[in-house]
Specification:
Belongs to the CpsC/CapA family. The protein is α+β, with helices and mostly antiparallel strands and about 220 residues long. Helix content is about 55%, strand content about 15%.
Length: about 220
């Protein structure tokens, strides 16, 4: 099937091609607004202070490299069961299953950024701040870290960070368009009617040498 033939088929089924994507987009959009709760993200920035910061600075580059490794270890601690459970206990929660965490760190600094996402903005900010507090105590206990100092505390988010409803609606629209094209093409392939001279030649394997025109209102 050529592109021109496909466009001709789509034009014949234009109503389906237009209506089905709109229906899919409305269905996905309605689901995202009704069934999916808003999520909020709170972030807290931390600076890792290691013990040799207070010593001499003769080997600054090697100290910085070692400090960055310690920073990566602190990032790992933030996701440890101990920090998670102690945070939940301090906030009176059974666990933090309703929250997702994301930790980013630069390779050229000792600053960590912790992002916590949940459905309650106030509680989400509380979880982020408490995790930063708990990881500082654990890091001092199990690593050569003086402290993990909070640079910017998590503030209560005022607007939702998700779900990305416009993206879902766009995906639903594209999925509906793809489904409409697939239905048109499959329906055309399953249609065995002879619709013209070309179909007749292909079916019989002989050329058409003439045809009788349809006549209306006469004998």
């Amino acid at each position: 099937m050529t592109l021109l033939e496909l466009l001709h088929l789509l034009k014949k089924r234009l109503k389906l091609v237009l209506v089905l994507p709109l229906v899919c987009a409305l269905a996905v959009g309605g689901y995202s607004f009704v069934a999916m709760k808003n999520t909020y993200t709170a972030s807290v920035s931390m600076y890792v202070l290691v013990q040799h910061d207070n010593a001499n600075s003769n080997s600054l580059s090697s100290d910085l490299s070692a400090s960055q490794m310690v920073t990566n270890d602190v990032a790992t601690l933030l996701k440890s069961d101990r920090v998670v459970l102690e945070t939940a206990k301090a906030l009176g929660l059974e666990d933090l299953k309703g929250y997702t965490t994301s930790i980013t760190s630069s390779t050229t600094s000792r600053v960590l950024t912790l992002e916590v996402t949940g459905t309650d903005p106030q509680r989400t900010a509380d979880v982020a701040n408490k995790m930063a507090e708990e990881v500082s105590g654990v890091a001092r206990e199990v690593m050569s870290v003086d402290s993990v100092n909070v640079v910017d505390s998590a503030k209560v988010p005022t607007s939702p960070s998700g779900p990305k409803r416009p993206l879902y609606i766009a995906v639903g629209l594209l999925a509906g368009l793809f489904a409409a094209v697939a239905i048109v093409v499959i329906a055309d392939m399953l249609n065995t009617k002879v619709r013209g001279e070309e179909d007749l030649e292909e079916l019989l394997g002989v050329p058409v040498i003439g045809r009788i025109p349809a006549m209306k209102g006469g004998r």
